[in-house]
Amino acid sequence: MSSTQDSGLPEPKFRRNDGEWRANLTPEEYRVLRQAGTEAPHVGEYTDTKTEGVYNCRACGAELFRSTEKFDSHCGWPSFFDPADSDAVILRADDSLGMHRVEVLCSNCHSHLGHVFEGEGYPTPTDQRYCINSISLTLQPTDGS
């Protein structure tokens, strides 16, 4: 039985075994994407970028977010108010660290992206903040950016 079956999630469309993940990701990417780690705040390459484009999963390349949904939350990580497609991410309860949060996973490969928070008062259409690790993303700039 695989860990995705154990977790109650549907099987990912994009799969690699642990050795393949380790061979294709840096140790820090692996720690965040495959072990649900968190990069340090204010150090990620996309935290403050204003470049227009599409943010893809660093592990599998699936489209996750667009710059049109990115906003300045000043929390230390890139923040989005909505995924590019409602099926692009999976949300699941995360009760680690003695608190309740909602983890955000890539629906294509089940890699850890970050967490989503609601009701914080940001002036966004959804009142949600998808707080995403930069290291979980790659940005494909829009032509002409």
TrEMBL record:
Instruction: Report the transmembrane regions from the record.
Output: none
Question: Which superkingdom does the taxonomy of this entry point to?
Answer: Bacteria
Q: Where is the composition biased (Basic and acidic residues)?
A: 12-21
Keyword Oxidoreductase on this protein? yes
Which Pfam family, just one, is annotated for this protein?
A: SelR
> InterPro entries under this entry?
Met_Sox_Rdtase_MsrB (IPR028427), Met_Sox_Rdtase_MsrB_dom (IPR002579), Mss4-like_sf (IPR011057)
Q: What is its EC number?
A: 1.8.4.12
| Cited PROSITE patterns | MSRB
> Which Gene3D superfamilies does the entry link to?
Peptide methionine sulfoxide reductase
Ranges for domain MsrB: 18-142
Segments of this protein annotated with the region Disordered: 1-21
Name the chemical reaction catalysed here: L-methionyl-[protein] + [thioredoxin]-disulfide + H2O = L-methionyl-(R)-S-oxide-[protein] + [thioredoxin]-dithiol
EC class, as a word, reads: oxidoreductase
Q: MF terms per GO, please? A: peptide-methionine (R)-S-oxide reductase activity
- Name the UniProt key words of this record, in alphabetical order: Oxidoreductase
Put simply, this protein is called peptide-methionine (R)-S-oxide reductase
The gene from which this protein is expressed is msrB
